[in-house]
């Protein structure tokens, strides 16, 4: 499902879907890579003609279309069908820490959007959060 959405976004952007691009998307979806270099070495195992520049261009392209975030260790955002545990850590100001599975995180987001009137039958595809950029020490 995630792969289909990524391919659709790439096509909308006018990109050709090459064998190397498909291979890199599979690696990113199936592994927990922490760098372009790690993706490159995994890709080399099956295709020794792949260049490191191709990996960097593909990662930049995937980030540009919103499919991945480098701050998220190249993981694709979780949908409501994801079974990953500990997908989200929430720390409250009293020190309470909650570890939410991907399904629980998606449910919290859905319920919050619904109760605020933002969600009317749609499904949450992904969530992107930027780090605070204000000048205050605490926000």
Which SSEs are present, and which pair or pack?
Elements: H1 2-12, H2 19-30, H3 36-44, H4 52-64, E1 88-91, E2 97-100, H5 102-115
Antiparallel strand pairs: 1-2
Helix pairs in contact: 2-3, 3-4
Organism: Candidatus Acetatifactor stercoripullorum
InterPro entries: FUR (IPR002481), WH-like_DNA-bd_sf (IPR036388), WH_DNA-bd_sf (IPR036390)
Pfam family, one: FUR
Structure description:
- The protein has 139 residues and is mostly helical.
- Helix content is 42%, strand content 6%.
- The protein has 5 helices and 2 strands, in the order ααααββα.
- It has a two-stranded antiparallel ribbon with strand order 1-2.
- Helix 3 crosses helix 4.
- The longest helix has 14 residues, at 102-115.
- The chain starts with a helix and ends in a 24-residue tail after the last helix.
Mean pLDDT: 80
Q: Level of helix content?
A: 40-55%
| Unreliable segments of 5+ consecutive residues | none
The radius of gyration computed from the alpha-carbon positions, rounded to a whole number of angstroms, is 17 Å
Strand order of the largest sheet: 1-2
Largest sheet: 2 strands, antiparallel
Judging from the principal axes of the Cα atoms, what is the shape? globular
| SSE run | HHHHEEH
**Residue share in β-strands:** 5-15%
Q: In whole angstroms, how far apart are the ends? A: 36 Å
Total of helices: 5
Strand elements, count = 2
Structural class: mainly alpha
InterPro entries: FUR, WH-like_DNA-bd_sf, WH_DNA-bd_sf
GO molecular function, one term: DNA-binding transcription factor activity
Protein name: Transcriptional repressor
């Amino acid at each position: 499902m995630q792969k289909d959405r990524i391919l659709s976004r790439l096509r909308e952007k006018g990109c050709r879907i090459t064998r190397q691009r498909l291979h890199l998307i599979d690696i990113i979806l199936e592994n927990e890579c922490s760098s372009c270099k790690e993706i490159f070495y995994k890709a080399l195992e099956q295709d020794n003609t792949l260049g490191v520049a191709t990996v960097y261009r593909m990662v930049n392209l995937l980030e540009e279309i919103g499919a991945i975030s480098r701050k998220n260790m190249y993981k694709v955002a979780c949908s409501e069908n994801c079974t990953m545990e500990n997908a989200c850590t929430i720390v409250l100001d009293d020190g309470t820490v909650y570890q939410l599975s991907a399904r629980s995180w998606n449910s919290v987001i859905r319920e919050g959007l619904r109760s605020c009137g933002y969600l009317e039958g749609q499904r949450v595809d992904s969530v992107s959060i930027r780090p605070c950029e204000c000048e205050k020490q605490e926000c």
